[in-house]
Design a protein that fits this description.
By secondary structure, the protein is α/β, with parallel strands linked by helices. Helix content is about 25%, strand content about 25%. The protein has a nine-stranded mixed β-sheet.
């Protein structure tokens, strides 16, 4: 696609998961059909509410930001064919990190795929097999049992993260600390950008 609906774009630090603390330019695309009740960017769901921008405009902005890495997120970015955007970003020497729920096929060339599954729509097996990072946002203790069914569909070198849902962090975080202690293949992820009050 030569144009994509864009909710926002900005330079910040990756706040979660494997690349936490590293600078990146974020491109947040509009449009999502997954509908998580605890989503903290519900304004992104309706693609029609966000202006379309060309992939060249997006790549130019990212390239001018000074960042070496770009996070393509949403919404659900894999609603769209991201091949043209990835090509434009790659032409500027940028590393591409994708954040997706995995409910659609991944179309584009990505350096890192963070797949964060949601109970509301389960990820495709094909998407699970492409994940470098598997990050589960835990809203309820039962999520810990639910997420285990996907582990066998991941690559053996996929990094595993559990993260407390922000509004439940005080009650869920101690549970996740115990879980990680008992399951050392998993790592605890926190939304450090929210603690720092940065975008």
């Amino acid at each position: 696609m030569d144009k994509l609906p864009v909710m926002e774009q900005f330079l910040s630090l990756q706040g979660e998961g494997y690349h936490s603390g590293r600078p990146a330019y974020f491109i947040r695309l509009g449009g999502c059909t997954v509908g998580c009740v605890w989503c903290d960017v519900k304004d992104s769901w309706d693609a029609q509410e966000h202006p379309s921008q060309s992939v060249e405009e997006l790549a130019e902005a990212a390239g001018s930001s000074g960042a070496r890495s770009v996070v393509i997120t949403g919404g659900e970015p894999c609603t769209y064919d991201l091949g043209a955007l990835c090509t434009a970003l790659k032409n500027r020497g940028l590393e591409i990190w994708l954040e997706t729920s995995g409910v659609y096929l991944l179309r584009g060339e990505f350096d890192w795929v963070c797949l964060s599954p949601k109970k509301f729509r389960e990820p495709l097996t094909e998407s699970l097999g492409q994940a470098n990072e598997f990050k589960v946002v835990v809203f309820h203790p039962s999520d810990l049992d639910w997420m285990q069914e996907f582990v066998g569909k991941l690559r053996s070198d996929c990094r595993l993260f559990v993260q407390p849902e922000w509004s439940k962090r005080e009650s869920i975080a101690p549970l996740l600390v115990r879980f990680v202690q008992e399951n050392p293949r998993w790592t605890l992820s926190l939304q450090t950008h929210k603690y720092l009050e940065i975008p």
